[in-house]
Amino acid sequence: MLLNWMSMTWLVVAGQFFHFALPPRYYAIHSFERDGRVYERVGIRWFKGLMQREPLSRLNPVLRLASDRTLSALRRLDREMRKAETSHVYIFVLMLCLMVYALLRQWLDALLWVFVFNLIFNGYPIMLQRYNRARLKLLIDRRAVAQADSADDGWKAV
Fold first, then answer.
1. For residues 44 and 119, is the Cβ–Cβ distance under 8 A?
2. 73 vs 29, 36, 38, 65, 85, CA distance in Å?
3. Fewest C-beta atoms under 10 Å: which of 11, 109, 112, 143?
4. Is the separation of the CB atoms in 86 and 19 below 8 Å?
């Protein structure tokens, strides 16, 4: 658990100076993710409910759907969600490397603990960001269409 927290702390501090990102295609929402059923089957609603309770809800206050649901606010939220997801992906991979090392050393108890904490602290947050971003993408698409339609209202073809 401490390794996860130390890694996240380091990444948050380093993120103030460096831009961490994954290839754009990583962030694409896949067809199996659109309706959210895959994530719901593995308990993402339960995890989301847990993250919305105090004190966990204070961990990342920028990851909230604000009452201001303008297109720019929704896109800003999408960027913040991508940043959070990226951080968890980097740490997830780092912990996987640690798991491989523990397996090679036959430290099965360490392997089990790192696996459990990696799943809780990184696996589920990654799934939650992807689950929420799929839903947010629908809002963004609807808002963009509505904004384009309202812009077209002033222009009539002659």
1. no
2. 20, 23, 28, 9, 18
3. 109
4. no
- pLDDT tens per residue across span 56-108: 878 887 788 877 888 899 999 999 999 999 999 999 999 999 999 999 999 99
User: For residues 39 and 32, what is the distance between their CA atoms, to the nearest angstrom?
Assistant: 10
Tell me the one-letter amino acid at 138.
L
Q: The tokens 């929704």 sit on which residue?
A: 74
Q: For the packed helices 124-152 and 44-51, what is the interaxial angle rounded to 10 degrees? A: 80
**Which is higher by pLDDT, 7 or 147?**
7
- At residue 152, the pLDDT reads 59
Token couple for 63: 């990851």
Does a cis peptide bond (omega within 30 degrees of 0) precede residue 55? Answer: yes
